[in-house]
Amino acid sequence: MPYDWTRPPSDADGELHLWPHQSLQPEGYVRFLGVTAALITVPLLPLMGTPLFWGLIPFLTLAVFGMKYALDQNRRNAQVLEVLRLGPENAELIRSDGRGAAQSWCCNRHWTQVALHPDRGPVPNYVTLRGAGREVEIGAFLSEDERKALYDDLRVAIRQTSATAPAPD
């Protein structure tokens, strides 16, 4: 599951980390670029020693480096980390992306509401936190089933942390 309670929720505190799937691991990245470069050179073998060979090399090199650039950009854009901290007084959500930009939301944790929007969101089973006059998304990059599980986990955690306030459905 691409989320984990680094500190399990309790009456005093809790901390949840969420991140998107990384389907291409570093070994796969290197292997993919190597196989791509090898497959691009196969059609060049009959052309070795001809002027056409030297005319095609810059374009094929550009294609391999273009693919590397696209994979690097994709990896950088997928470096999202959401951290939900449940403290004694506040619930705080901090979202940071691969470029270093961070967004934060903070609310009195006793007024924090967890909502599941089965149909009314950009993705099915959209999970939001509401409080302090704002509604923020959490875990939108997770799969549909993972968002359902996250919603259940958050409802339990918010109920644990807000014993005096009723947890909304």
Question: How many H/I helical runs?
Answer: 3
Q: From the alpha-carbon coordinates, what is the Rg to the nearest angstrom?
A: 23 Å
Overall average residue pLDDT = 87
How much strand content do the residues show?
Answer: 25-35%
Number of strands: 8
Q: Percent helix among the residues?
A: 25-40%
Q: Give the number of domains.
A: 2
In spatial order, strands of the major sheet run: 1-2-3-4-5
Structural class: alpha+beta
- Described by the principal axes of the CA atoms, the overall outline is elongated
CATH architecture classification name of the largest domain: Roll
Low-confidence stretches: 162-169
Report the CATH topology name of the largest domain: PH-domain like
CATH class call of the largest domain: Mainly Beta
Largest sheet: 5 strands, antiparallel
